[in-house]
Amino acid sequence: MVRALCRSTMRLTQARVSLGQYTLERADPNAFAGWVRPLSVLGCCAVDVACNGNRIDRTQRDIRLDGMDLYGAVFQVAGRSTVSNNNQTVQLAKGDVVLVDKARPVSYVADSEGAHWLCL
Q1: Whole-prediction pTM value?
Q2: Number of C-alpha atoms within 13 angstroms, CB side, residue 83?
Protein backbone atom coordinates (compact mmCIF):
# COMPACT_ATOMS: atom_id res chain seq x y z
CA MET A 1 0.00 0.00 0.00
CA VAL A 2 1.29 3.44 -0.87
CA ARG A 3 0.34 6.49 1.10
CA ALA A 4 1.73 9.83 0.05
CA LEU A 5 1.32 13.31 1.46
CA CYS A 6 1.87 15.96 -1.22
CA ARG A 7 1.49 19.68 -0.73
CA SER A 8 2.48 22.00 -3.55
CA THR A 9 3.88 24.52 -1.07
CA MET A 10 6.28 22.02 0.51
CA ARG A 11 9.81 21.33 -0.74
CA LEU A 12 9.79 17.87 0.81
CA THR A 13 7.13 15.22 0.33
CA GLN A 14 6.97 12.13 2.51
CA ALA A 15 6.10 8.86 0.77
CA ARG A 16 5.44 5.75 2.85
CA VAL A 17 5.54 2.45 1.01
CA SER A 18 5.61 -1.16 2.09
CA LEU A 19 9.39 -1.12 1.55
CA GLY A 20 10.09 1.80 3.89
CA GLN A 21 9.68 5.53 4.18
CA TYR A 22 11.35 7.94 1.73
CA THR A 23 11.62 11.68 1.24
CA LEU A 24 11.19 13.34 -2.16
CA GLU A 25 13.13 16.54 -2.70
CA ARG A 26 12.54 18.82 -5.64
CA ALA A 27 13.73 22.30 -6.49
CA ASP A 28 10.37 23.46 -7.87
CA PRO A 29 7.26 22.24 -5.98
CA ASN A 30 5.21 22.42 -9.19
CA ALA A 31 7.70 20.53 -11.36
CA PHE A 32 7.20 16.93 -10.15
CA ALA A 33 6.10 14.37 -12.71
CA GLY A 34 6.10 10.66 -12.00
CA TRP A 35 4.50 7.84 -10.06
CA VAL A 36 4.91 5.40 -7.19
CA ARG A 37 2.98 2.15 -7.65
CA PRO A 38 3.00 -0.86 -5.33
CA LEU A 39 3.41 -4.26 -7.01
CA SER A 40 3.77 -7.89 -6.09
CA VAL A 41 6.52 -9.73 -7.99
CA LEU A 42 6.45 -13.49 -7.40
CA GLY A 43 4.98 -12.87 -3.94
CA CYS A 44 7.54 -10.20 -3.01
CA CYS A 45 6.61 -6.61 -2.27
CA ALA A 46 7.87 -4.25 -4.96
CA VAL A 47 7.46 -0.62 -5.94
CA ASP A 48 7.50 0.83 -9.45
CA VAL A 49 8.90 4.38 -9.24
CA ALA A 50 9.48 6.96 -11.96
CA CYS A 51 10.18 10.66 -11.79
CA ASN A 52 11.67 13.58 -13.65
CA GLY A 53 14.97 15.09 -12.46
CA ASN A 54 14.29 14.75 -8.73
CA ARG A 55 16.02 13.24 -5.73
CA ILE A 56 14.54 10.52 -3.52
CA ASP A 57 16.23 9.96 -0.16
CA ARG A 58 15.93 7.50 2.69
CA THR A 59 17.20 9.64 5.55
CA GLN A 60 18.22 8.71 9.12
CA ARG A 61 14.86 10.16 10.18
CA ASP A 62 12.98 7.89 7.71
CA ILE A 63 14.91 4.85 8.97
CA ARG A 64 14.19 5.76 12.60
CA LEU A 65 10.47 6.29 11.90
CA ASP A 66 9.75 3.03 10.08
CA GLY A 67 12.37 0.82 11.77
CA MET A 68 12.84 -1.35 8.67
CA ASP A 69 16.15 -3.18 8.55
CA LEU A 70 16.42 -4.87 5.17
CA TYR A 71 18.21 -4.96 1.83
CA GLY A 72 16.65 -4.15 -1.49
CA ALA A 73 17.40 -4.61 -5.17
CA VAL A 74 16.91 -1.58 -7.40
CA PHE A 75 16.54 -2.20 -11.14
CA GLN A 76 17.07 0.75 -13.49
CA VAL A 77 14.20 0.28 -15.97
CA ALA A 78 14.75 3.47 -17.99
CA GLY A 79 16.85 6.63 -17.90
CA ARG A 80 20.00 7.19 -15.87
CA SER A 81 20.51 7.88 -12.18
CA THR A 82 23.02 8.08 -9.37
CA VAL A 83 22.58 5.94 -6.26
CA SER A 84 24.52 6.60 -3.04
CA ASN A 85 24.45 4.12 -0.14
CA ASN A 86 26.88 3.04 2.56
CA ASN A 87 29.60 5.52 1.47
CA GLN A 88 29.51 4.27 -2.14
CA THR A 89 28.10 6.00 -5.21
CA VAL A 90 27.27 4.30 -8.51
CA GLN A 91 25.90 5.52 -11.82
CA LEU A 92 23.04 3.42 -13.19
CA ALA A 93 21.85 3.09 -16.78
CA LYS A 94 18.96 1.10 -18.24
CA GLY A 95 19.36 -2.59 -17.31
CA ASP A 96 21.63 -2.03 -14.28
CA VAL A 97 20.85 -3.44 -10.81
CA VAL A 98 22.17 -2.31 -7.42
CA LEU A 99 21.76 -3.84 -3.94
CA VAL A 100 21.06 -1.25 -1.21
CA ASP A 101 21.16 -1.51 2.57
CA LYS A 102 17.94 0.23 3.64
CA ALA A 103 19.07 0.36 7.27
CA ARG A 104 21.49 3.10 6.12
CA PRO A 105 20.71 6.36 4.32
CA VAL A 106 20.34 6.04 0.54
CA SER A 107 19.84 8.61 -2.22
CA TYR A 108 18.47 8.10 -5.72
CA VAL A 109 19.05 11.04 -8.05
CA ALA A 110 17.40 10.97 -11.47
CA ASP A 111 19.26 12.67 -14.30
CA SER A 112 17.71 15.65 -16.09
CA GLU A 113 15.77 13.33 -18.42
CA GLY A 114 14.21 11.44 -15.49
CA ALA A 115 14.50 7.84 -14.32
CA HIS A 116 12.36 4.72 -13.82
CA TRP A 117 13.19 2.14 -11.12
CA LEU A 118 11.73 -1.16 -9.95
CA CYS A 119 12.52 -1.68 -6.27
CA LEU A 120 12.28 -5.09 -4.54
Answers
A1: 0.75
A2: 24
